[in-house]
Amino acid sequence: MKYISIFSCMFILLLLGCNEVNPKGEKEVRKFVKQWNDAHTQIKSPYLERYYMDVVTYYEKEFRRGQVQQDKTMLFQQFPDYTQRILNDELEITKVAGSFLVTFTKQVNYNGVQANYPSYLTVTFKNGEFKIIREGVSKNAENLDAPIFPGARDSNTAISNNRQLYGDFNGDGLSDYATVISPEIRSATNADTVQCKGECNSVIIFSNKNLEPITIKGAYQSQLENLKDLNSDGADEIGFWDIKPTSKSLYIFNATNGILLCEPIFINTTVHKNLKLIDVFKKTGTNKITVTSSEEVNGKWVLKSKVIMLK
């Protein structure tokens, strides 16, 4: 009888231990998701990082937890009035392979816009805490090019560590890097206008101190590109995407002297969506590039290409 009692106690302890590692249910998941949702305000957003695993599938791309936090911070900088709620407080929870798939309709408000998106989270329980391992919206949702989503911030490059772009920008055969100092956004007055603390300019700075910083006026969100050597001077040229909610413009700079090699290449992203660098810029010969931009012709936006000879 003594041994039976001991084994009974051990069995009960094992059951209790299993319940700690694999919680029974939906009540705890609902509470966790509600807390995550409530943290989507500018005041509470610094605490969002703690809801995520170290590596997250974030809107179909792999992000580190710190990158997710940076993307959320950029969202609230661009839209300080942003709010979201779970429509009708309705969550559908399905247990899948030890994790919980949570689906719901997310209602967002920003800049006077209200929209509903079928959304999902995948939540796991690890080391005594719930953590998010996937976040996204249904591929069938409308308006997925809205400026509130990570793709509008060109997330993979824009929020990478220190936003460093490597290349030989002074032609000495050694690798340098460039990075961007962006302005701090105070508020967004409408889809195309923001107010910054101080001047609303971005500055490209280089690790090589012999290269002068390059200032781009009116740019508050950006992405850098290494365009390689375009003018045969032995140094890589640098591309700067000035990203706005409804457009983006590619500036092509000679990094050695900060001079623009051509007029900025303008793309109307409302009409011409999902264009990549190769779609708007190509090196097509010695000291020769072909650029494609959005132009308005007879009231319609069209893509036009032209060849530019570089000096």
Automatic annotation (TrEMBL):
It comes from the Bacteria. This is VCBS repeat protein. It comes from Mariniflexile aquimaris. The lineage of its organism: Bacteria, Pseudomonadati, Bacteroidota, Flavobacteriia, Flavobacteriales.
